[in-house]
Amino acid sequence: MFSASFVCIAPSTSRYVPAFTPPVRVLVSSTWRSGSTLLGEVLAAHPGAYYHYEPLMPYGLQQLGPTQSNQNEVEGLLRGLLRCEYQLADDYLKFAFVNHDMFMRNLRLWSMCSAMPRTKCYTPDTLARLCSLFPVHVMKVVRARLELLAPLLSDSRVRLVWLVRDPRAVMNSRTSSVTWCQTRACSDPGYLCSDLTADLSTYLVLKETHPDQVMLLRYEDLARNPYEKSREVLTFAGLTFHRQVKEYLDDHLTSDEDEPWSTRHDPRTRVSRWMKVMGFEDVVKTQYHCHSIMKSLGYRLFTSKEDMDTGNAVGLLNLP
Length: 320
Description:
Largest sheet: 5 strands, parallel
Radius of gyration: 20 Å
Structural class: alpha/beta
Number of strands: 5
Low-confidence stretches: 1-12
Mean pLDDT: 91
Number of helices: 17
Shape: globular
CATH class: Alpha Beta
Order of helices and strands: HEHEHHHHHEHEHHHEHHHHHH
Strand order of the largest sheet: 2-3-1-4-5
Distance between the termini: 55 Å
């Protein structure tokens, strides 16, 4: 049974969900240090949204693909969460109980959890009830490749946003902003761009088979035009550019926190910072592994340090 406090909270929550908000599941697929935290929070700012933050965090610093032995387990976990089914998510719940950030990022869930004993908020029945209050689910995933996520599109409510970033900027951020990027899956540009190349192949197939359910977004475009691109993603998902989304952007884009995980800064002033701090030898190394996928995604290859100093790294997408 739920406590009286929960019974009081649930109706008040539903009042803030805009009328006629469609049931939709927005899945943001990216990789580490590619801007997914910002995009996830923008989408989660919509008042009808329930945020599944990094549900694959228990798998550590690896990239999960369709050929691995735990494919069915991973797909089952993600599909279950998008259906508010927590009964088979014991390992996920145990990890989240110790790693508070996973649930704290879901601001609406966390505010309701604060009105009950903490242990109760991690029980499958409680989470299922809270989760089901919200028509919109946002899920951010940086540890699974697109081919593994593709079966989730069998649910017509799912909208998949593939978020990419210039591999040179990604590698610079992984080496200079954080200390935990130690596995080859994280620290090796060859691994990064092999994953991106595979994701592009999957994306092009999905664009043919599920044209209304998949979208490609470059972080650089979001950073330079945050209001316009946020509106574009929300429209793709069938959602409005709600006042609370604008308020989130107004608040975060006028702050200036210099922390690796913070979204409180103006990305327009930081999107090109890597070109001022990354050594050209590291740029060349990344381009060696990534030149093909970079060209496809519209990222210019630099031929010299002077070329890089121009700051002109992003061109037009070059997709079939």
